[in-house]
Amino acid sequence: MCRETNALEVKTLIDCQKSCVVKVLKLNAKDDLKQRLISFGIMKEATIEVLEHAPGKSTVEVKVGKMRIALRDKEAELIEVEKI
Q: Whole-prediction pTM value?
């Protein structure tokens, strides 16, 4: 389930729980990381499903299209999303 958030609160990918499906609003990453995320299909308007969190939320496994990607928590914090 996705957690409901206040409309004024910015939600990032790391805040999403398992099985949550979200749409990317903004990438706050620097150039190199931003290009890497885009190459994986993580870009504005992309749909992402959260598959799993590692213990302590050190990494998050997501599905973008048919691709499964593991992101570090610091990378997931840079991806602003909204529930769909």
A: 0.86
